[in-house]
Amino acid sequence: MTLPSGSRLGPYEVLAPIGAGGMGEVYRAKDPRLGRDVAIKVLPASFSSDPDRLKRFEQEARAAGILNHPNITAVHDIGTNASDGAPYVVQELLEGETLRSELASGRFAPRQAIDYAIQIAQGLAAAHEKGIVHRDLKPENVFVTRDGRIKILDFGLAKLTQTEGSANVTNLPTATEPGVVMGTLGYMSPEQVKAKPADARSDLFALGAILYEMLSGQRAFRGDSAGETMAAILKEDPPDLSATNQKVSPGLERIVRHCLEKNPERRFHSASDLAFDLEALSGTSGTAVASRAARPRIRLLWPALALAAALAGLVGGVLWMSARRPEPPFYRPLTSRRGFVSNARFAPDGQTIVYSADWEGTPSRIFITRPGGRESTALPLPSAQLLAVSSRGELAILLDPATDYNLYFRRGTLAVVPLAGGSPREVERDVRWADWGPDGKSLALVKQAGPRQRLEYPAGQLLYESSSWISGPRVSPRGDRLFFWEGVPFNGYSLTVLDTQRRKSVLGPMWADFWATAWSPDGDELWFPASGIGGGNETPIRATDLKGRQRLLERGPYTVDLADVSEDGRALVNLFFDQPEWNVGLLSGQSRESLLVTRTDLRMVDLSRDGNLLALRDVYPEGSGVWIAKTGGSPPVRLGDGVTHGLSPDGAWVLASQQGKLLALPTAAGTPRPVSEGVFETIRWASWFRNGKRVLVWGQTKGKTGIFVLDLESRDPKRVAPEGYELVAGGNALSPDGRLVAARSPEGQVMLCPVEGGEPRPIPGLVGFFAPAQWSEDGKSLYVFRLGAVPSPVQKVDIDTGRATVWKELTPPDTAGVALRVVAMTPDARYYAYHCQQYLTTLYLVENLDAWRRPSFWSRMFRGNR
Known about the structure:
Methylamine Dehydrogenase, Chain H, seven-stranded antiparallel β-sheet, single chain, Phosphorylase Kinase, domain 1, mainly beta, Transferase(Phosphotransferase), domain 1
């Protein structure tokens, strides 16, 4: 509610409104006691009941109130409006304009930019000495008075860095917990974008971005969307200043670059240091305030000009409101702990958010949170993964979820439990996915049924069945159809839409995430992360209608998973800022387990028989490089292009593939040689027999996919396992005598397939995502591990009886969001190596996702609406 002129706030008389912002309305007022004009910021009464917003407002007043510096806005008083209880803060009244307004006229001369930067740095230094970090420094929060003095505004986002009880800030609370991004995109530091704690160095990054903009006339970090801007802050350096302003000296450019270091440890250590370097560069000492002549103002013909401006404003306002583009997507982080968020959904109220996560290596739990809340709350449930939330407020969950391949693919017992509290009610076993229908009563679910997967909707009624994986089913908002992904993870799959009459339409094949897709609010489109389209690790978010016509919603920062979309178009997305790969083990010459390769973008796939050599491959993009690493800590060596499969028995060669061709690359001096060409269209995995005359290949030949033995002389592939059987990339599937292959059946049973023909036989007890690591030297036992699980016991299993003993439990140094992918051993089980992939995600709420890309009113008028 706007306060009228003449109203009173305590002893202050309101004269006129000045402006409004996210933290309240600002008025010009008179202090009759001292006979001076002041500025009063008032938090609206409608917001004063919000504890978080009220706390931030009070912090702004108290933080600024303890600061006394000529470059920081002075706070005189705080109080409460007697009529509606709205709090207010009284500040000095400033005459001039914001730095943003000054930047509208273009770049500054270096002398002026340095002058402003020195004053900002000195103001920050005073705040940092009191333990206060601004965290939202930007041109809008920097005021330039008429005499050229800088005033830093708005400490409402300040954060105390000193401990409680310090002399200066004993009663000043922290407003925002780590993990909540506070600040303005484009001036935020990389640590703020990642929802990490901000300190004084974060303010220096923002000051560097402001100084860059003053010198170049362009923002340091910008993109067509919020996602692109975030990616630029995290990965890119702004263009050289010399390219846009030749008057910028190399010394000044070095200072700007020093402020904009991605790693806070490499920035200036303090604002005082920065101010000192700027002063030395400009040849000044102390605060240099350059007086500027007042800009000329036109004072004639005001009545006519006012009338013309009013008419132009009226017409222009109508056109602008119709044609302007909506605000770009805004990302608000909801989590801050280290680990993996496996799923997230909006609750029926549209504000509560339910998600499941594996934090710091602990078993999966289910949490609830709200935007702007201080922290997440764990629900009093056993280990479980969230599947869906119904319109009636019930959760579909997986109890004791077991990892089947990686952290995304899990299987367990489907149960239902009220969000308000209660004990889970078990519904069905061996379930992988589930979603609620719009009535909040019926469930769509995917379960394993022998070698096939069943899609049921409602539960118990078969809707679709497939020998391929069925993943991520979601029922449409109207309940008349559902979609799901069908295929093999990371090896080709299609987005399929099925109505309740079992009419099927395929919108693929698409290269998209195999699980992270949602219906648009109106149910007319599917929104999905389009993996592999954006280039690098960026993942655009796209929409497709039911005829397969696509449009771009958001270019996307880094790798992104789309978890859910609300009725008003907000989205829950998971962002991957870090996906390191760890190669750990004990090799020849070592006395204890250690990190084997320092690089986190290489994946170990094999270990030589003597424990002296590792074969590795590039993680992204797959097939870009074949690598080896020797014991002793020497850096990895790149041998050439291709996908690494394994080492020859003597360790002299690495077997690799390139577009269906097998080749051998020497691990020492030598020339690569072809192994096969024109036999296979695709190769997923390959390994040598010990005699070096044959190769085991899991791939496609003549349109048939399967496991084959290729004789290198006859070049004739022979199938050795039934259709649908799979090998696991990594480890050793071949028995020492070359007579048996350990493969996994479509039912998930580890089977022994005779190379020379015959029926496969199961190894008793090995059902699930078990993978072979190595055969015992006598060929009577197989060392196996479970894919994905961490910590993971490696078992020695008798192939005839199934009797298992634990050989070793593998636990990497960091278990947060970690999945085990490959284990390799020497035949004598003396040396070993294992590979883990780490999924570190942050859950974000994204607003304006759809509005940003939809055509404007005028573009629809002139171009036609699709």
